[in-house]
Amino acid sequence: MSESPKIGFVSLGCPKALVDSERIITQLRTDGYEVAADYSGADLVVVNTCGFIDSAKQESLEAIGEALAENGRVVVTGCMGGEEEKIREIHPQVLSVTGPHQYEQVVGAVHEHVPYEKTHNPHLDLVPAQGIKLTPKHYAYLKISEGCNHRCSFCIIPSLRGDLVSRPIGEVLDEAQRLVDAGVKELLVISQDTSAYGVDIKYRTGFWQGRPIKSRMQELCEALGELGVWVRLHYVYPYPHVDNIIPLMAEGRILPYLDIPFQHASRSVLKAMKRPAHAENVLERITRWREICPDITLRSTFIVGFPGETEQDFAELLQWLEAAQLDRVGCFQYSAVEGAAANTLSDHVPEAVKQERWERLMALQQSISEQKLQNKIGKTLQVLIDEVDEEGAIARSFADAPEIDGAVYLNGETQLQPGERVEVTIEHADEYDLWGVPKH
Ligand code: SF4
């Protein structure tokens, strides 16, 4: 895997410009770029300028000059970007100039001058393939940590990215706040293991808006729940402390949605996979979660055909799925990843058997998911509008993460705006999606 390019950032001016910078940085991180700590380590520098008064313009021009002298590859954006001629007169060598709030164009300029095509790998990437495109303005991925302390035998992330490094809670919450200020309506919390947040820093107490707050999933969820936007958790492992966040979901503080990559249900396969929390009694806990929060939507992924998986193990997985009644399920056939410990395991499963098991699992899950969606007919759900075209609006409810889950179609609703929240009554369902009409 090629090393991620690093982008330097110089942000001048008012809080609005900072919000733009935050949005640009969040998008670039999502696209696989990293933020450079200094000029010399950067492949390119973005200067977000201020043009409010003459002294700010002068400061902006000096900052551009400094970035050119120190690095040489500079993209200019922000308020002074509205005066492109003036900038080019003094600094003709800048690569691109855009105005305020044009974050898509800035991200586009970075891609053009430092091309980085992140090849999507469902085993490695936190963001779905489609998410690598420019994420719409109304939702954003919020990365809370890097790396992972586990050593699942099929995974090479720890050897590529190292052990867990949690971002300071104040920094994460400031980023979240700025994204919300910039118009984001939904935050998607991502990391390799969201439930492990803060373990590496011993749940250190940080500060946010002048108050002490622990770097721990529970406190993070409580604080994010205060921001007034949808908060969706991805990649949570079923550790016992996850039980404590279910009441936050029942109270509507964060979305009643959990993305838990269970990967399997047979103890012996989970053990061979070296999965975290594999010994917890998950079915009982799912029942308890549903007692506390009946609406909770559970999404998961599974691997079939892992080395050593017997027909008995697979039958156990099917029984487990039947009992668990998960809402959304993705399934991969095991394939060796170069450098993964699982490659050395014996009893590899023949390809034809993997395929056959995959088909059986998908058929079972499809009937479960279909039934679950049928049960929503007649209900009223709040949805967030993602797209509007000449046929109507495409939206999502709390049960649908962008790109990976289904949608709620609102036929004929061409007047709605992306990012709007609307109450809809569900009228129709198929095996993946829902159709509804706004409640008037
Ligand atoms: S929890 Fe396991 S699968 Fe996930 S990143 Fe860590 S080692 Fe890989």
Plain-language structure description:
It is a single chain. The chain has helices at residues 15-30, 54-70, 84-90, 103-113, 157-161, 169-181, 217-224, 246-250, 267-273, 282-292, 311-324, 351-374, and strands at residues 6-11, 34-35, 44-49, 74-78, 96-97, 139-143, 145-146, 165-166, 186-190, 205-208, 211-214, 230-233, 257-259, 297-304, 328-333, 380-389, 392-397, 408-411, 421-429, 434-438. It is an alpha/beta fold and 440 residues long. A 5-stranded parallel β-sheet has the order 2-1-3-4-5, with helices on both faces. The chain has a 5-stranded mixed barrel with strand order 16-17-18-20-19. The longest helix is centred in the last third of the chain and has 24 residues, at 351-374. The protein binds iron/sulfur cluster. Iron/sulfur cluster binds at residues 148, 150-152, 155, 157-158, 192-193, 276.
